[in-house]
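Fold it.
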Amino acid sequence: MSGVLSEVPVSPESIRESLRDAEPKAFWLDDPAAPDPRPQLIEHLRCDLLVVGGGFTGLWTALLAKEEDPSLDVVLVEGERIGWAATGRNGGFVASSLTHGLPNGVDRFPEELPALLRLGDENLDGIEKTIARYGIDAQWERNGELTAAYEQWQVDELGHYVEQGKEYGLDIDLWDADRMQSEVHSPTYLGGLHEEDGTALVHPARLAWGLAAAAESLGVRIYERSKVVSLDEDEGQMVAVTGYGQVRAPKVALATNIFPNLVKRARPYVIPVWDYVLMTEPLTPEQLASIGWQNRQGIGDAGNQFHYYRLSADNRILWGGYDAIYHYGNGLSEELAQRPESFVTLAGHFFTTFPQLEGVRFSHTWGGAIDTSTRFCALWGQAYSGKVSYVLGYTGLGVGATRFGAQVMLDHLHGRRTERTELAMVRKKPVPFPPEPLKSAGIQLTRWSISRADQQQGKRNAWLRTLDRLGLGFDS
């Protein structure tokens, strides 16, 4: 990588030493607060609504359905454990954006963006109110977000972002190097953005566990380790078959995200892109003082291959991003969750950003698959004459947007015409990915081009400019 983050101040030996004792598991899921396993489905059930998938999308769907109609009989089945996949492996950033950021929304949905911004704010408020209503211990912090620039071209682009934000009434401040470094002490910062609202931080696994408990308190039946292997229509009902049981229901919400969709025609719209994360040991008071960060904002940087980082409740630093890895043929094997070369790269960038933390060790390393679509935000669909609804493709901002995705699915299943269902974002689908080997070749060329853009002061080559013209522009 070019620029300041390539100037790693510690030796390769020190980087490897920092990773020596790291547990190869997601920090959030490695928690004594984790609930005991729920039972597998071993019988034949009937219900009014079946939810397939126990991540954020499925949990919100089940909870919102019961809040709306307490008489509704809702069953949720999960193939592994509640929150075990992307839901429990992300950085815990809860964004109000439904469009994967303002620029992507401007490019794709300019006419309805004011409504999408309002709906996104309402959605974030709704998450906060749900956490309070059910007393969920999710370590919720609504401290805003910083975007850090470490190259001059990034500072210039952030200035454009501020002007763009003003057109839509957003309160965004552009900070110079001194102001950024007074807030968070990193010698790499040349400037940055401060957004007071629109982003919260959360312990994602505890949020998932809390949503599941809240849903159960309203009467939702939840089964774990009960993968649905087939979904078919029979005498006007949908029948979902698991290894040992089945569920018959008139309505089904599919919340499986990156895993192979039970509606096969939905599968080409997403690919799994693997993202990798480090978590440090808890910082000492002296180490924490050396970096400032008293206001505990979430931080992302302005590179095309960007990092995201934050403090945990016990003052660890989560450090993730940069590498976005696609494995040929939509690779989803759990073995891919550990990638030492990515962890070494991330650790080097960490110590470049915070050289005063040399000697800090990492306690956890993990990876997770992001359900990426060609427009980088969610898409919806229906099947079996409206009996089945699905949503997928959040592309990394799903912690917040999944609640909105669930609301749209419920609108579709109940045949409701609402402001949400009338959005072009909901009515239209993105361009699907091509089959292999074209898919892999295109993705690898795009990754190479993105890396080159970061090395060339943000200048996008002919391939990236072509993707931009086709509405397929991409960063990591």
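The chain has 13 helices and 20 strands.
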